[in-house]
């Protein structure tokens, strides 16, 4: 079992997840943050 391969796969997944989060943040900002902030806080 190659642990290095597993580590690289995990990094790819983490990178994809963070990119996805950035996409969501940009989407929310473009919609309008005031309504979103009222809902969150």
UniProtKB/TrEMBL annotation:
Protein name: Uncharacterized protein
Species this protein is from: Trichinella pseudospiralis
Domain of life: Eukaryota
